[in-house]
What we know:
Elements: E1 2-9, E2 22-28, H1 43-50, H2 66-73, H3 77-91, E3 99-103, E4 109-115, H4 119-139, H5 144-160, H6 165-176, E5 181-183, E6 189-192, E7 199-202, E8 205-206, H7 211-218, H8 220-229, E9 237-240, H9 246-252, E10 258-262, E11 272-275, H10 278-289, E12 295-299, E13 304-311, E14 314-322, E15 325-327, H11 334-342, E16 347-348, E17 355-356, H12 362-371, E18 384-386, E19 398-401, H13 408-421, E20 425-432, H14 439-442, E21 445-451, H15 456-459, H16 469-477, E22 488-492, H17 497-509, E23 515-519, E24 522-525, E25 528-532, H18 538-546, E26 552-556, H19 559-565, E27 572-577, H20 593-605, E28 607-616, H21 620-623, E29 632-637, H22 643-650, E30 654-659, E31 662-667, E32 670-676, H23 689-703, H24 709-717, E33 731-734, E34 739-742, H25 748-759, E35 766-770, H26 778-791, E36 794-797, H27 810-822, E37 827-830, H28 834-843, E38 850-853, H29 858-877, H30 883-887, H31 893-898
Parallel strand pairs: 16-17, 22-26, 22-27, 23-26, 27-28, 28-29, 29-30, 34-38, 35-36, 35-38, 36-37
Antiparallel strand pairs: 1-2, 2-4, 3-4, 5-6, 6-7, 7-8, 9-12, 10-11, 10-12, 13-14, 13-20, 14-19, 15-18, 20-21, 23-24, 24-25, 30-31, 31-32, 33-34
EC number: 6.3.2.29, 6.3.2.30
Organism: Nostoc minutum NIES-26
Keywords: ATP-binding, Ligase, Nucleotide-binding
Amino acid sequence: MRILKIQTLRGPNYWSIRRHKLIVMRLDLENLAETPSNEIPGFYEGLVEALPSLEGHYCSPGCRGGFLMRVREGTMMGHVVEHVALELQELAGMHVGFGRTRETATPGIFQVVIEYLNEEAGRYAGRAAVRLCQSIVDRGRYPKAELEQDIQDLKDFWRDSSLGPSTEAIVKEAEKRGIPWMQLSARFLIQLGYGVNQKRMQATMTDNTSILGVELACDKEATKRILAATGVPVPRGTVINFLDDLEEAIEYVGGYPIVIKPLDGNHGRGITIDIRTWDEAEAAYEAARQVSRSIIVERYYIGRDHRVLVVDGKVVAVAERVPAHVVGNGRSTIAELIEETNLDPNRGEGHDNVLTKIELDRTSYQLLERQGYTLNSVLPKGTICYLRATANLSTGGIAVDRTDEIHPENIWLAQRVVKIIGLDIAGLDIVTSDISRPLREVDGVIVEVNAAPGFRMHVAPSIGIPRNVAGAVMDMLFPNEQSSRIPILSVTGTNGKTTTTRLLAHIYKQTGKVVGYTTTDGTYIGEYLVEAGDNTGPQSAHLILQDPTVEVAVLETARGGILRSGLGFETANVGVVLNVAADHLGIGDIDTIDQLANLKSVVAEAVFPDGYAVLNADDRRVAAMAEKTKANIAYFTMNPDSELVRKHIQKGGVAAVYENGYLSIVKGDWTHRIERAENIPLTMGGRAPFMIANALAASLAAFVQNVTIEQIRAGLKTFRASVSQTPGRMNLFNLGNFHALVDYAHNPASYEAVGAFVRNWNTGEKIGVVGGPGDRRDEDFVTLGKLAADIFDYIIVKEDDDTRGRPRGSASDLITKGITQVKPNCRFESILDETQAINKALDMAPDNGLVVILPESVSRAIKLIKLRGLVKEEIQQNPSTTVVDIQNGVTSSVINTLL
């Protein structure tokens, strides 16, 4: 077997609207292409030996063991690889269950689709599954050591990609509330929400967190001085920078026992507590100096360690933190008890899991000695041996929930302290013998105030009730169910996407909102180009959705982006599907128009139930998408007598209809006429029917988003098919004696659309410069030739500079074949170079004629046409100058600049 390609999907996609995280592996079965599993000697036995847990896979029989039943009876190897890849992830702790396997149009080549939680792990699992299956085919077994290594590698991928318990809690709460989120590319930032309504977080700091509050909290001595000045009980202490000052500092705080810790440390690093001798104090000083130049010396207060979490000025959780310890069983040594404790699946490295594995350091051995133990000591049953003096979870401690026990006065004090420091989220470390009594009564103190406090002790305490502290954060960031989203309007179709997207964005601008939109020629925010290029995929969508100035997103959504990565958003408010026609067939295993329709239907399906799918009622494949989406339906039609639309309106639906020369919105028994088509510049005086259809779709999409008829009308009347607003989309140039039209038509449907306009051109001869992208099928080029013969009086056949792997001249020959099949006496010639072809057409243009250029490079075609206009002006001003002179450089600087 051979893997031909692996793709990672991250949003709603061709395979599933709900399952966004999918790996698509294109797998060539090679010599196994016609060999089902039951015909491979020993394969079933080898597979069960390697992965007995596959017994839990149901598969199509719908019962436990169903998949293995299929293997025993005979199934293709692609299907086996799918299940093995899923099971490998399961064994590594990643719970996934969705998979699909489909044979492509090429016999023996399959698309294997598997769900993933981590991208790298998903891709690895696919490759490992192929290795495992191939090994069993070849050798009858898969070595246990290799399987164990695969699973360990997958666990490492999963661990390394972990968001951490605190961020994970926030993300899960966001998902529960329907708040979209994404990881940003720097500083471990998480974005919650979209556009202007977004919030950002880093760990448990938000974009509302005061930098002054963070700086103060990080300066533990300054925090203590400010709190002491406001009457808050804090430990007596001082800061030193040299070992020589340690003895005096110990005397200042009242003698032993003491605490020594770094001034700007965190997570318990470099802290030593309950120090009782000078030797211990010296060792503790050196440990603290490894973390910070300045050292805090404090009095040690007897009591239990508590963490009080305050969010948005309110105490939301309290946990008692118990230092790392083991409990004797009367049989095991302390070393054995530590090893057994660390086997707990809830314990991981650092902050990877809800608990941390116990690791010993110098203070651990001092503490053992103080308790009279060594690692070889056997503890009596029920006896507790503490292994760490500090109670941080990051050093192996556990947490006990005490939220319901804290005294009201302590709640008041904690909330006051956080306001004094100036933090929106803070964790207070309190030492007290009894959190249910006021600190003043039990000599309790507030030891530290922490910015960016960890949540894991509250969301997953070892003992007690888990607290939804992330919910409090969401309530703070998005109060009173404030929206985290912005309107997303997604536009797809075979033809007209860019024009409709630009028009819809232009209409929305009439509302005064900042519109971000993506098109095949660039990404725009407001009036400005952010990034040039074909930006119709998920990355461009993310650029818009991440921008904090954008209030509305209008996203052109092309087939390629959906196939490669899925949609760049989870759900839209409006999904517009313009049409589905033959284009790009045979690419990406989309071989039929019906498959293409299924792909584009993703846009209609990924719409909120209270949103709208705006569908072309005149295209049966598009109209049928109404059955696949849970959203409301809105139809647009060029046929005022459409039966489908009539029934839809009778049921209370809304539609945009071209009737009696008007673009109108129809709902129930009323009709809102927006404007006559002939008054809308985009329709070119009403002569371009497909532009009328695009305008209907854009108007309807805006209307269902509560844009007013007046605003829609204003947008339609001020939008033009110009080089500035829609480059390459029906750009018409008046060159005096004739006109030139540039349009990026490159498939049969778009040729027909341009033809509808050309046939309405009533004066002069019509010359066409035609071609098509080289990666289309032979029959597609023949069809383009047939269409061109029906549209133009004279045809110049050219080819793209990039033939996309097709031999030079092949596309031209096929187009010519189509021309002669329809019109044997048709006047045409082949000029493969696009620039030469365009210049020839412009040279031979008759008076009142129309030259239609369907170019590969829109910008080049427009430059050549503009040059003609400048040439004409130059000759008028200087009659002795010829076109040849100008082309040879005897011309103005503006022409040189243009060229």
